[in-house]
Specification:
The complex is a heterodimer.
Chain A: H1 2-51, E1 60-66, H2 71-87, E2 91-97, H3 102-111, E3 118-122, H4 126-132, H5 153-157, E4 160-161, E5 164-165, E6 168-180, H6 181-186, H7 196-206, E7 212-215, H8 220-227, E8 235-236, E9 239-240, H9 245-259, E10 264-265, H10 275-280, E11 284-290, H11 292-300, E12 306-309, E13 321-329, H12 336-347, H13 349-356, H14 366-371, H15 381-387, E14 391-392, H16 399-414, H17 420-436
Parallel strand pairs in A: 1-2, 1-3, 7-10, 7-11, 13-14
Antiparallel strand pairs in A: 3-13, 4-5, 6-11, 6-12, 6-13, 8-9
Helix pairs in contact in A: 2-13, 16-17
Chain B: H1 8-43, E1 45-48, E2 54-57, H2 61-68, H3 70-101, H4 108-120, H5 123-133, H6 139-146, H7 158-186, H8 190-198, H9 203-214, H10 216-231, H11 235-241, H12 254-264, H13 268-297
Antiparallel strand pairs in B: 1-2
The chains are: A alpha/beta, B mainly alpha.
Chain lengths: 437, 298
C-alpha cells in the first residue's frame, strides 16, 4: 500500500515535469514537423518546375512573411505582389501571414531555420535581430538604379547598424490629432487646437456625461516624442532614463488629464478595443492616432464627421511619432538573389507606388510621396507634414525591454495607483536591472 | 546467480513484452524523458539559439539570478495567491455541487449536463467570452450596477485583474471535479446514511460526518490535480493580458514568465531554469499535501 502510493506520487511528478518542461521546449517539437513540411514543399516545387520548363528560366519560389491588419490591406498587398510576379514570371511569391505575436513566431522560425526568405521587420525590433546575425546585409545587392538615397533618412537609418543596411523601409505611418467636427460645433469651438494648452482647454469643454474630450493611448510607442518634448531623453546609452525630471514633467499632463482634470481617458476605460474604436463610437472628441485610422473610419464609422490636424505644439514645437517596417532578408535563405528581386520591387518606386496608393501607409521614398496626389488632401496632409519632424520609433537592442517596463508601470500611474515619479523610478530600476542580466 | 538466468521461453516472453511496449517506450523517451533531460541541461547553460547557436555552461547562475529577478518573484507571488484562493474554492464548490446533484432532485441529469458544459468549452473561447462580459460596459458590470453594487474595471485594474481570472477559472474547472466527486458519492453505501438516519442525524450532519470523511481520498486527488493545474496557469492570463502579464504585472504567472523568457527574450536557459524550479515547487507542494493527508488517516 505504501509503495503503491509512492509510485502514484512519482506518476504525478512526471506529469508535472512534462507539463512544465514541454512549455519550454515547444519549439523543438515544432522544428521537426516544420522541416518535414518544408521537405514536401520543395518536392512539389520541383515537380512544378519540371512542368513549367517553357519559360526558359527555372521557376523559384520566394517565401514572404508579414502581417495584415485588414482585408483591404490584404487586397492591396496581393495586388502589389501580383504586379511583381507579372514582371518576374519565373519567381513565385508564397505569402504567409502571421496573425498574432509576430516577433515570437518569427524568432522561433529563425531559430529552427524555417523563416521565410523575406519578412516584415519593425524598426523597433530590428536591432535585436541584426545583433543576432540572422539578417542578410543588403548593401551588396543595391544598384545605383535603385536610388537608395531617395528614402527618408530617419526611416532608413533605423535599419542601419555597423555601417551596413539590414532592411529597406516598406512604408511609414505617423500620428496626428483626429477631432470630431460635430462635437466641436456643439461646444462652440471654431478651430482645432494649435497648442497643447489649447487642447486641454478644449478637452475640458468637450467632456460631458457620455464622452471624454481627449482619448489617451498609453503605449510608449505613442508617448515617446511627448516624453521627450521638454528636453529629456527616454533612453540613454541603451538604458531606460525615465526618471529624468524633464521626462516626468512632459508626461505628467497626460496622467493629470485623466486623474486630476477628468477630461481624458484611455480606450480601455470606456470599454473600447483601441483608439479608433473609442473615437469612432464618439466616446472621445479628440485622439492622437495614425493614418491607419482613415481607412478604418471610412469602413466602420462613415457617419462620423471628423477632421485631422497636426499634433498640438508643446513648448512651441511640433512633435509626432513615425513608425516604419522594413523588408529584411533571411541570412539563411537559399534564393537570396530572387529574394532581393522581390525586396527591390516592393521598395522600388513602382512597387511602393502601387502599395501606398491604398492610403493605408505613407511612402518611405521622397519621390513616391511627391508623385502621390494626396499631399493636397486635407486628411493626409498632417501625416505627410509630420513625417518631416517625427521621431522614429526605434532605438537600440534594449528598446523592447524598456518599452514593456514602461507600459507596466505607466499604466498603474495612469490609473492613479501610484504617482508618476514612483512609477517611473520603478520602471527604470526594473528595466535597467533586466538589461544588465 | 542461477536465479537471474532466464530460460529461452522467459527471454522470448520478455522480448515479446518489450516489443509490444516499444512504441510507447519510444514515444516516452522522445517526447517525455528526452525533453526533461534536455530542459535540465538547458537550465545550467546560457543558451543562445538565434543566429549563432551557443551553449555556455554556467553552473547555477540561472537559478541564483531568480532571487534578484523581480518579475520572477512577482510571478511566483501571483501564482501562489492564485493557487491558495482557487484550489480550496473550486474543491468546495465541486463538492457542494456534487452533493446537491446526488440528493435525488427532479431533473438532476439535466443539471449534470448543464453544469459540465463549461469544462467542455475550450479555454480560449471561454476567455474570449469572459473578456467580453468583463468589459467596463459589459454584462457583469451592467448586472452589478442594476442591483446597486459597485462596478469594477475587471481587466485593466491591477488589483482586480487576477481575481477576474480566478472567477473565470473556478467557474470553468469546478464542474470537472464535480464529476469526480459525483462518481465517488455514488460509491458511498446507502446503509451508512440509513444508520445515520436511525441515529437521528440531520442532512447537514450526514453531509459533514458521513459524506465528507468518506470522500477524503477523492478530495486528496482533487486537491493535488487542482494544485498542479493552478500552478501551471498560462493560457488565461496570456490571453487576458495579450501576453504581457499586465496591467502592472498583476496577471503575470510563472508559466507566462517562462514563455516570455523563452520566446520573446530568447533566454532559453533561464526559462528552462524557471521551468525546473516550478516543477520542484509543485513537487514539494504535492508531497506536503500527501503527507498531511496521510497523517489524517492515521
Amino acid at each position: 500500500m505504501e509503495r503503491a502510493k509512492w509510485i502514484k506520487g512519482l506518476g504525478f511528478m512526471s506529469v508535472v515535469m512534462a507539463g512544465t518542461v514541454l512549455t519550454a521546449c515547444g519549439d523543438d517539437g515544432n522544428n521537426n514537423t516544420d522541416e518535414a513540411t518544408n521537405g514536401n514543399d520543395t518536392g512539389t516545387n520541383e515537380t512544378e518546375n519540371n512542368a513549367n520548363q517553357n519559360e526558359g528560366q527555372e521557376e523559384v519560389t520566394v517565401r514572404l512573411t508579414g502581417w495584415q491588419s485588414s482585408p483591404t490591406e490584404q487586397r492591396y498587398f496581393e495586388e502589389t505582389i501580383a504586379a511583381f510576379e507579372e514582371e518576374y514570371p519565373h519567381i513565385n511569391v508564397e505569402l504567409d501571414t502571421i496573425a498574432d505575436q509576430y516577433m515570437d513566431v518569427l524568432r522561433t522560425r529563425l531559430i529552427g531555420g524555417e523563416a521565410a526568405d523575406v519578412f516584415f521587420l519593425d524598426a523597433f525590433e530590428a536591432p535585436g535581430l541584426i545583433e543576432a546575425g540572422v539578417l542578410e546585409p543588403m548593401d551588396d545587392y543595391i544598384t545605383d538604379e535603385f536610388d537608395v538615397d531617395d528614402f527618408e533618412d530617419p526611416l532608413i537609418d533605423a535599419f542601419r547598424r555597423d555601417g551596413q543596411l539590414w532592411g529597406l523601409p516598406k512604408d511609414t505611418s505617423t500620428l496626428a490629432l483626429f477631432y470630431n467636427k460635430d462635437h466641436f460645433e456643439e461646444a462652440g469651438i471654431e478651430s482645432p487646437p494649435e497648442t497643447w494648452e489649447e487642447m486641454e482647454e478644449y478637452a475640458e469643454t468637450l467632456t460631458d456625461d457620455n464622452r471624454y474630450g481627449f482619448g489617451i493611448v498609453t503605449d510608449l510607442a505613442r508617448l515617446y516624442s511627448i516624453a521627450e518634448s521638454r528636453g529629456g531623453d527616454v533612453v540613454v546609452d541603451n538604458q531606460a532614463n525615465f526618471t529624468d525630471p524633464a521626462v516626468i514633467e512632459a508626461l505628467q499632463p497626460i496622467v493629470d488629464m485623466r486623474n486630476e482634470k477628468e477630461i481624458g481617458a484611455s480606450p480601455a476605460d470606456v470599454g473600447a478595443e483601441w483608439g479608433g474604436d473609442m473615437f469612432g463610437t464618439e466616446r472621445a472628441s479628440m485622439i492622437i492616432e495614425g493614418n491607419w485610422m482613415i481607412e478604418f473610419m471610412e469602413d466602420a464609422f462613415p457617419d462620423v464627421n471628423y477632421g485631422v490636424v497636426e499634433i498640438p505644439m508643446i513648448e512651441d514645437e511640433r512633435q509626432t511619432m513615425a513608425y516604419t517596417v522594413s523588408y529584411s532578408m533571411n541570412a539563411q535563405s537559399e534564393q537570396k538573389d530572387e529574394a532581393w528581386k522581390l525586396v527591390e520591387f516592393l521598395t522600388g518606386k513602382e512597387g511602393m507606388e502601387i502599395w501606398t496608393s491604398s492610403g493605408l501607409a505613407l511612402p518611405s521614398r521622397q519621390s513616391v510621396a511627391e508623385n502621390m496626389d494626396y499631399a493636397d488632401d486635407a486628411i493626409y496632409e498632417p501625416f505627410i507634414e509630420g513625417a518631416s519632424y517625427a521621431t522614429v520609433w526605434a532605438d537600440d537592442t534594449n528598446l523592447p525591454i524598456i518599452n514593456s517596463n514602461f507600459e507596466n508601470q505607466f499604466s498603474s500611474a495612469f490609473l492613479g495607483d501610484q504617482t508618476l515619479e514612483e512609477a517611473m523610478e520603478e520602471a527604470e530600476r526594473v528595466a535597467n536591472n533586466e538589461i544588465q542580466d | 546467480m542461477a536465479k537471474w538466468k532466464l530460460t529461452k521461453s522467459q527471454l522470448r516472453d520478455a522480448g515479446q513484452g518489450y516489443l509490444f511496449m516499444s512504441p510507447t517506450i519510444f514515444t516516452i523517451l522522445v517526447f517525455l524523458i528526452g525533453p526533461i533531460l534536455f530542459a535540465l541541461y538547458l537550465a545550467f547553460n546560457n543558451v543562445n539559439l538565434l543566429g549563432q547557436t551557443s551553449f555556455e555552461f554556467v553552473w547555477f547562475d540561472n537559478f541564483t539570478r531568480m532571487a534578484s529577478d523581480e518579475r520572477a518573484i512577482i510571478a511566483l507571488q501571483n501564482t501562489a495567491f492564485y493557487v491558495v484562493i482557487v484550489v480550496p474554492t473550486q474543491t468546495i464548490l465541486a463538492l457542494v455541487l456534487a452533493a446537491t446533484l446526488n440528493a435525488g432532485m427532479k431533473g438532476e441529469k439535466w443539471f449534470r449536463v448543464i453544469y459540465f458544459i463549461p469544462t467542455l468549452t475550450s479555454s480560449a473561447v471561454l476567455v474570449m467570452i469572459f473578456m467580453w462580459m468583463y468589459r467596463p460596459d459589459g454584462l457583469i458590470n451592467t448586472i452589478l450596477s442594476s442591483v446597486g453594487l459597485p462596478t469594477y474595471n475587471w481587466m485593466n485594474d491591477p488589483s482586480v485583474a487576477l481575481i477576474s481570472i480566478m472567477i473565470m477559472n473556478i467557474w470553468a474547472t469546478a464542474p470537472m471535479f464535480m464529476v469526480i466527486y459525483l462518481a465517488a458519492l455514488q460509491g458511498i453505501s446507502d446503509s451508512l446514511y440509513e444508520a445515520a438516519d436511525l441515529d437521528g442525524a440531520s442532512a447537514i450532519q450526514k453531509f459533514w460526518y458521513v459524506t465528507v470523511p468518506l470522500l477524503r481520498p477523492v478530495t486528496g486527488f482533487v486537491v493535488i490535480i487542482g494544485v498542479i493545474g493552478t500552478f501551471q496557469l498560462f493560457d488565461q492570463s496570456y490571453m487576458f493580458s495579450g501576453g504581457s502579464g499586465g496591467p502592472n504585472n498583476s496577471t503575470l504567472t510563472v508559466v507566462l514568465l517562462i514563455y516570455q523568457y523563452a520566446f520573446s527574450n530568447n533566454q532559453m536557459g533561464y526559462a528552462a531554469a524557471l521551468a525546473v524550479s516550478l516543477a520542484l515547487i509543485i513537487l514539494v507542494a504535492t508531497f506536503i499535501q500527501r503527507k498531511l493527508q496521510k497523517d489524517e488517516q492515521l
